[in-house]
Write a structure and sequence with these properties.
Layout: E1 6-8, E2 22-26, E3 30-36, E4 44-45, E5 52-53, E6 59-63, E7 65-66, E8 75-81, E9 87-94, E10 101-102, E11 109-110, E12 116-120, E13 122-123, E14 131-139, E15 142-150, E16 157-159, E17 164-165, E18 171-177, E19 187-191, E20 197-202, E21 210-212, E22 217-218, E23 224-230, E24 238-246, E25 249-257, E26 264-265, E27 272-273, E28 279-283, E29 285-286, E30 293-299, E31 305-312, E32 320-321, E33 328-329, E34 335-339, E35 341-342, E36 349-355, E37 361-368, E38 383-384, E39 390-394, E40 404-409
Parallel strand pairs: 1-25, 2-37
Antiparallel strand pairs: 3-40, 4-7, 5-6, 6-8, 8-9, 10-13, 11-12, 12-14, 14-15, 16-18, 17-18, 18-19, 19-20, 21-23, 22-23, 23-24, 24-25, 26-29, 27-28, 28-30, 30-31, 32-35, 33-34, 34-36, 36-37, 38-39, 39-40
Amino acid sequence: MSGKAVSLVLKAVVAILPIALFASNAGAATQKVLYNFGASSTDGEYPSSALIFDKSGNLYGTTTNGGAEDSSGGTVFELTPNGDGAWTETILHSFGNSNDGASPDFGLIFDASGDLWGTTNRGGSDNNYGTVFELKPAGGGRWTESVVFNFGGNNGANPSSGLISDKAGNFYGTTAYSISTGDLTGKVFEVDAAGNETVLLDFDSTNYGTYPGPGLVFDQAGNLYATTYNGGPDQDGTVFELTPAGGGVWTLTQPHIFGHRGDGSNPYCNLIFDAAGNLYGTTQDGGAHVYGTVFELTPDGNGTWGETILHSFHSDAKGGARPNAGLVADGKGNLYGTTVWGGAFDRGEVFMFTRNDKGVWTHTVLHDFGKGTDGSGPDANLVLDAAGNLYGTTEDGGTYGYGTVFEIIP
C-alpha cells in the first residue's frame, strides 16, 4: 500500500453496559513444565511471548535474553516432542551480533513458505531501534536469519508487537515510539516481504491513544483492530480500528475509550473476535477492584460499540491480578488467559471463562503458579492444541529461574 494519509474520525461509546454476572470456581487441571530455560550458558532466558505450532506439532517461541555467549540478545527456539512426554529444545537463532536485532519480545508467525517472521525491540543498523526479521529453514535443522527492515527515523522505533499478515503476504505491526515526536506515541506500520515499509497511522495526539499494544487483528472485512495502553481523555487507553479507505488512506475510529467509572484501564493485549463479531480483551488495571478486567465489545450496527465488563480481577488467593496478555478461545467459545500476579502463591494464574445459555460467565482458575518450580509471572498469550490442551510461557521461575514452557490439561 502507498501513502501515509490518515483521516481521523473519532467514535466512542462512553456508557458501560450492565456488568455480566459471574461465579468463581477452582478448576481441576494438570500442569506440566515442558522446558526450563537457563540449562546452559548459551540457552535462552526470560520468554515473554506466545508460542506457535507448526503442522508437525513442534512449538516455536522467543526469549528476550540469553543465547550465544558473544551475543546474548535473545533467541528463537523450537521445542520438539519426543513421544515419551519429554521435549527437546533447539536454538534456531541467537540475536545480538553486529547489526542483528536484539530482544525479540513478541511472538512469531509462519508465512506461506514456512519461514518464520518476527520483530526485535532493539538492535538493528539504525540506532538500536529494532528490526523485522525472517528465519528460513536451510536444511539439516539449520535456519538462516536475515534482517528485512530496520526501524528508525520517521519509520517508528522499538516495535511493541509481533506481526500479523494479510492474504497478499504483507506484514503489520506497531511501534512504541515515534521518532518524529520523540515520545511514546507510536505507529502502526505495514512491511512487505521485500522490506518496504508504509506507516498507516502515527499516534501524534493523546486523544487518539498512545503506545499501541502488542497485537493487531483483522476482521472479515479487512479492518485492523488493536489497543493503546495510554491516551484518550483520561489517559487510560483505547481500542482503535483502522479501515482501508483506498489510495493508501486508512480511517481511524475508536470503538472504545477506557477510563469511565468502573471501567478497565491500560489494556496491553491482543484482541480476539467471536463468530458474532464481538471483541474480547483484557486490561491491566481498573475494574471494580483496580486489578484489571476481562471485557467484551459489541457492535450495535450504527458504527458504535457497547462494552460489558465480564470480570474484575482481585488480588487475593481466589483469583489472579494484572492480566498482561490477551485471550484465546476454543471451539465452544470458552475463553482462556493468564495473570501476572495474584492467585494462591501471588505468582499468577491460568484462568478459564465459560458462558451458559443464559449469558452468565463462570470464572475458573485452572492453575496457580509459584508452588515449587512450576514457573511464575505468565505474561504472554496461551495457545491451544487440537485436543484442547493449553501451552504458554512464564517469564520467570522454573528450575533455573529463567522461565518455563508449560502445558495445562483442563
